[in-house]
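Why do we care about 3D structure at all? Because function follows from shape, and shape follows, mostly, from sequence. That is the central idea of this module. The next example makes it concrete: a single protein chain, its amino acid sequence, and then its structure expressed as tokens.
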Amino acid sequence: MADASHTPDTPSGRDYRDTVFLPETPFPMRGGLPQKEPLILQQWGDLYGTLRAERQKQNAPLYVLHDGPPYANGDIHIGHALNKTLKDFVVRSRFLLGYDVDYVPGWDCHGLPIEWKIEEQFRAKGRRKDEVSKDEFRAACRNYAGEYIDLQRDQFKRLGITGDFANRYATMDFKSEAAIVAEFHKFKNSGQLYRGSKPVMWSPVERTALADAEIEYHDHVSPTIWVKFPVTGASDDHPDDLLSFRSGTPSVVIWTTTPWTIPANRAISYGPEIAYGLYEVTAMEEGLEFAPWAKPGDRLIVADKLAEEVFKAAKIAAWTRVYDINPSGLECAHPLAALDSGYGYAVPLLAGDHVTDDAGTGFVHTAPGHGADDFEVWKAHGHHEVPDTVDPDGAYYPHVPLFAGLKVLETEGKKTGKFGPANGAVMEKLIEAGNLLARGRLEHSYPHSWRSKAPVIFRNTPQWFIRMDEPLKSGDTLRETALKSIDDTAFHPAAGKNRIRSMVEGRPDWLVSRQRAWGTPLAMFIDKQTGQPLHDAEVDARIVAAVAEHGADIWFTAPDSDFLGAHDPARYEKVQDILDVWFDSGSTHAFTLDPRTAEHGYAGDRPSHWPADLYLEGSDQHRGWFQSSLLEGCGTRGRAPFKAVLTHGFTLDENGEKMSKSRGNTTDPLTIIKESGADILRLWVALVDYSDDQRIGKQILQTTVDAYRKLRNTVRYLLGALAGFDEAERLTDYDQFPPLEKFILHRLWELDAQVRQAYAEYRFQDVVRPVLEFCAGDLSALYFDVRKDALYCDRPDALRRRAARTVMDEVFARLTAWLAPLVPFTMEEAWTTRFPDAGTNCARVIPDTPGQWRNTAEAERWAGVATVLEVVNEALETARRDKRIGGALDAWPTVTAPADLLAPFDGLDAAEVFRTSGAELVAGGDAVTVVVNTSDHPKCARSWRRVPDVGSDPAYPDLSARDADAVRFWDQAHG
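And the structure:
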């Protein structure tokens, strides 16, 4: 058909361009999103409030997404953008599905990262932290967090995030801190809280205990040592000559990667099922550059399976196995006993199930103050005193013989996190004592603080814990209650259930105390006589009320008597520790959702319910927020505060590498928004499989831009094609629709079910990909191309044209709804371009799709048509390339194919489907073959079709009959 640039050379000499109904729309081809999106945000105003009010008028069911709080520190990064965009997909899609959605964005404000920033600020002013009052320090932390809440809020809004920002929550808000204290009191008063002295992961750099969720593992090179513990005693069931003066004193050999823990050794653990032997050295390796520490005649006790490996490390060339040894009943001397009487205690051998013969020597050096297994086996054998060896800075206490003051790790300066002198000093003393057998180095996975990135140590220290295995009121333990809640929770993806379940099954008691300044306090008093927390409801109420009015700072500044009432302050100790920040964030449901539930008498316009329908965070939060929320809810309310959990992976660069500023491979979401627009970033999120790790970079974003451009052009074409469409033109009788329109309506019916289901199950990729394929395939490549002639050249009241525009209207209504949660700015622009007075597109629900549109027969027909059409298109393209035709309208192909392949064309105009002037279908042969003939008919000056009836109307001798009728209609309408 003709386009607007064609100037026909016709017998009448008339230019028919004005009579062709070309698409018209002000919707531009180029998005211009960076400039346009801020204007749309202004037009939306309080979009979230508008949507909630609209749904509440409709008595819509309530859906609650509870926000896992990002940390109030720095600009948003690509991980924030992914996370918040996924949450926005949930919020907007639930509004689209007809729900009233409660979503309150929140921020995590307490903790070490902000403390460090404030310490840096004070140091820059020449003030050390210990020169700043806790009140002033906490105020600076509060101001810092507040600035970044405001900054991140604006950045999230620019991304198009919809939520109740006007009522955002923050863990540092006074009411939040009061609620956290109240939740903590529930654990205190139920007996789940206890103070224990046990080894915990301790960060010397940060001077605080860390929970499992605050640990990440990195490769780390540690010194390794094989150490001899001389046997000094044996029970009667051992051979008489074991300690005979005629033989050398035998030694139990241990292996460790933490030489600094040797001064804390109190025992050696062995495996009851492991076979051990007494070995005598007979020869050493020769030609060594150094003198080995072993010598012929040495007698060593090791696991048989590991003996060869031990001797190789010690440069022992030959040995003899003397006999079996049962470690039970042996007693050793400490390897440093000869150097200082402080190590003059006996070292017993203790049976332990944690000992294996997979590596090392088959014996485990046991320092109960520096290892969980060490502590447990020490206690299990009736020992109660656990030595304190290392202070909060990671240095040996003054009472530690030989090593007082030496640091395990450096905590200041450029060497922060590197090994201090402790390891080297211990090894030198072991050499001096004659008890170092061998040493080496090992690269292994080692725990580090996720904040400071520095290695941590196990250190015995008094801390506050929540019991995992003490029966609650229900009779079940916290662990059992949590595991039942996990089983009752829906996980997306399903593998998340096993992951968090295994973590909860094996986790230790919950360590909730921290020795820092910026956080919510463990606001309680301890009876100095009993060492137990004070249980007094009136005291607790005064504490909570004071924190709600003045913030948690009041705990550190107000006199004890303000809280204790009639109790004698001299009898009680005020706990100065702060709560684990995971307890803070794990309690957010208590002050964000609970107060706005009907059960608590809420009757306002921001209703919520408990538990939340969904928690959504990164997969690392199985160890973090998901788990702390689970334990907090189960410990205070008997169940998890969520019905479902959705997790996403991490964002990597285009090569699948972890992003790092130092490597220069980061992708800044704010830059993407500035250069391309938020909808491009959102479309990338929609296209990826978020359940796994995703990749992003310039090339991937360009692919996203290309997909966006195709989508935008589809919407633009619809807007142009629907210019002037009104209800009078709409075709309402389904039976009047041509087969092609029935097929497109069937596809709408099919996609509608897929989109609804995918949104309900949070499968956003399964929304956008089928819709994009529909736009590129069924619409652009087939429907728009086939119907272009009818749309442009049929008279306006022609049934075929009315049917096409009716179907296009239905397509537009659904595309702008289906994609509104994913690319809301573009769909809003499209909707308001066509309906400027119809309100926001975001308030719509997916239009109902009539069941009558389901038409499997037409779906099968057009699948068959596609098979033939593909061959025809290839033949036409070849003819065009060979310059046998100028365009498809010059052709009149003959298509030969088996009858069953041509059957789908019954009732169709094959030329219309092929976009040619005519076509002949011939049944026969075994496959589809095409002969591209040229049409020898005259060319219509308006539609360019070469058909027999050109010139049949004497008033329009250069037009086909169809075009003559359309122009006559146009002429009459235009006088």
